[in-house]
Amino acid sequence: MTVTLVLGGARSGKSRHAESLCAGERHYVATAQAFDDEMRARIAKHRLDRGGNWVTHEVAHSLSAALQGIDASGRVILVDCLTLWLSNLMLAGEDWDTLSQGLASQLPTLKADVVLVSNEVGLGIVPENALARAFRDAQGIVNQRVAQAANKVVFVAAGLPMLLKG
């Protein structure tokens, strides 16, 4: 079992790189919610780009439970992405701190190979409002927790993967 975290900015190529790491019985855990036409179009493009050789699971909130249900030796699970999962939790008023600690603790116990995608949102300017600052800080904490639990961490910029750990 290997846990890989793939980090990067928006449109950096992180999802494409993460998909390239997956072989075997592939399970795609999609955390996006389509609240508007633009997001529906993004989701449709992601589905088209990755092709039909995936079993897709749509999981907006209960990520640990979903991973437990999918987990089996010989499988690879791609979670795309932790950023939208965190957004879902925060907007619903859920305890993202406890849930992300639970996820980080769970990852090394899984039998499947797991690849997780997440945005690195802390490289830009300081956001002007409290919610955006809270999200930026929470995302940094989630990324640190998952990176600590991961065997391998890759940062993708301009489509180029850079190994940070492993």
Structural class: alpha/beta
Describe the oligomeric state of these chains in a short phrase.
Answer: single chain
Summed over residues and divided by their number, the pLDDT gives a mean of 95
Helix content, binned percent: 40-55%
- Percent of sequence in beta strands: 15-25%
Architecture per CATH nomenclature, i.e. the level-2 architecture: 3-Layer(aba) Sandwich
- Outline the biggest β-sheet: 7 strands, mixed
Shape assignment = globular
- Compute the number of structural domains: 1
Radius of gyration: 15 Å
Structure description:
This protein has 166 residues and is of the alpha/beta class. The protein has a single domain (3-165), classed as 3-Layer(aba) Sandwich (Rossmann fold), CATH 3.40.50.300. The chain is 42% helix and 25% strand. The chain has six helices and seven strands. It has helices spanning 14-20, 37-50, 63-70, 82-91, 96-106, 130-149; strands at residues 3-8, 25-30, 55-58, 75-80, 113-119, 152-157, 160-165. Strands 3-2-4-5-1-6-7 form a seven-stranded mixed sheet, with helices on both faces. The longest helix has 20 residues, at 130-149.
What does the secondary structure layout of this molecule look like, with pairings?
Blueprint: E1 3-8, H1 14-20, E2 25-30, H2 37-50, E3 55-58, H3 63-70, E4 75-80, H4 82-91, H5 96-106, E5 113-119, H6 130-149, E6 152-157, E7 160-165
Parallel strand pairs: 1-5, 1-6, 2-3, 2-4, 4-5
Antiparallel strand pairs: 6-7
